[in-house]
């Protein structure tokens, strides 16, 4: 799926990201952090667009840490408070299922707190000592500690490259029809939909929609193509179909999105 892209105000929020160890990259997009800066910078609200990935996030409050897991199946509006220290692991499609045994659909579109009841994941006990150490180090060192914990999970789980994950990636490339991909990888439609729902959390149609929207957003900000041409290049019937789908996905029109993003680029 698409690379994790930091928002335009990343510098204001003191956001940093770390690419994972190559051995983790089949399952992990990146690790990122936001270091607390007091109350000088006001909170910022950002749109988090879905790409079939999911996030394990640790918030370091003064009293006690909060560990949450979220799978954003739809576009979310999230407020980032610069006074808060936050570290997060962004998983690729099926990554959290492979490394943590979590089924994304159970955590859709809200940050679910982990460990607050008897139904806590078995790996949480191994994460807690790492979380305690996060208070004693800076965020760069903290991300390294989280990566080391993931590597220990990899050694325990030793997951192989999932056929489901590979298929999700191939669907997102939009290079071959779904029927041909299923035939090439030995899936029936029923098996594909069941495994995607369990391991990735979405249907094949969702994956196609995410990929089309990612491509459209890239073209809107990196080209001067008219909307009608972008619609055709991204697989939509016409400009009206594209505009309707884009507004439903991003909560703004393609023209408004292009204007807003180009304005941010030129101000940078």
UniProtKB/TrEMBL annotation:
<dbReference type="InterPro" id="IPR009057">
    <property type="entry name" value="Homeodomain-like_sf"/>
</dbReference>
<dbReference type="InterPro" id="IPR050204">
    <property type="entry name" value="AraC_XylS_family_regulators"/>
</dbReference>
<dbReference type="InterPro" id="IPR046532">
    <property type="entry name" value="DUF6597"/>
</dbReference>
<protein>
    <submittedName>
        <fullName>Helix-turn-helix transcriptional regulator</fullName>
    </submittedName>
</protein>
<dbReference type="Pfam" id="PF20240">
    <property type="entry name" value="DUF6597"/>
</dbReference>
<dbReference type="InterPro" id="IPR018060">
    <property type="entry name" value="HTH_AraC"/>
</dbReference>
<keyword id="KW-0804">Transcription</keyword>
<feature type="domain" description="HTH araC/xylS-type">
    <location>
        <begin position="161"/>
        <end position="260"/>
    </location>
</feature>
<dbReference type="Pfam" id="PF12833">
    <property type="entry name" value="HTH_18"/>
</dbReference>
<keyword id="KW-0805">Transcription regulation</keyword>
<keyword id="KW-0238">DNA-binding</keyword>
């Amino acid at each position: 799926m698409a690379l994790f892209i930091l928002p335009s105000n990343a510098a204001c929020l003191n956001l940093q990201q770390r690419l994972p160890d190559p051995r983790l990259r089949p399952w992990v997009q990146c690790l990122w952090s936001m270091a607390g800066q007091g109350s000088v910078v006001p909170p910022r609200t950002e749109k988090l667009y879905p790409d079939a990935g999911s996030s394990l996030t640790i918030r370091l409050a003064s009293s006690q840490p909060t560990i949450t897991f979220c799978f954003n199946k739809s576009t979310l509006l999230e407020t980032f408070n610069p006074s808060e220290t936050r570290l997060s692991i962004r998983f690729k499609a099926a990554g959290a299922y492979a490394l943590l045994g979590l089924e994304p659909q159970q955590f859709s579109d809200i940050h679910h707190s982990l460990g607050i009841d008897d139904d806590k994941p078995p790996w949480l006990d191994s994460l807690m000592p790492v979380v305690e150490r996060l208070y004693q180090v800076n965020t760069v060192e903290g991300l390294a500690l989280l990566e080391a914990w993931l590597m220990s999970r990899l050694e325990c789980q030793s997951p192989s490259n999932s056929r489901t994950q590979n298929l999700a990636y191939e669907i997102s490339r939009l290079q071959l029809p779904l029927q041909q991909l299923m035939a090439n990888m030995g899936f029936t439609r029923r098996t594909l939909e069941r495994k995607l729902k369990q391991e990735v959390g979405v249907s094949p149609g969702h994956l196609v929609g995410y990929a089309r929207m990612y491509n459209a957003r890239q073209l809107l900000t990196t080209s001067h193509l008219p909307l009608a041409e972008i619609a055709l290049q991204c697989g939509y019937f016409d400009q009206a179909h594209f505009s309707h789908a884009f507004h439903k996905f991003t909560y703004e029109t393609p023209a408004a999105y292009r204007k807003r993003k180009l304005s941010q680029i030129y101000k940078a």
